[in-house]
């Protein structure tokens, strides 16, 4: 198998609102869209496309049509966590989890898009952080 791209698809009630949130605040751009139904977003540096699908789409198997993206964390590793936190606050984005440092060195904060999808920015620059495999 040779994988040529990676995407995460999230089913939400209002895909337009979630797409606008990532475009406006996280620098993603739309690569394919069907307003009200579907948006595929990308960033050249993210390594993954984010796809928002509307709940109830007939093209989805019946058992998946109304399952939403609850409990999922869409996490992006960044170089300047404090800078991104300040930028988002300046843009009026609600920070739903303050900057937190875990004992293993992960540092992160969270926002939520209009559909409740958690968007987390993270780095591993805290005390105790190692990148050993």
TrEMBL record:
Gene3D superfamilies: 2,3-Dihydroxybiphenyl 1,2-Dioxygenase, domain 1. Residues 1-124 form the VOC domain. It holds the Pfam family Glyoxalase. This is Putative glyoxalase superfamily protein PhnB. It comes from Actinomycetospora corticicola. The lineage of its organism: Bacteria, Bacillati, Actinomycetota, Actinomycetes, Pseudonocardiales.
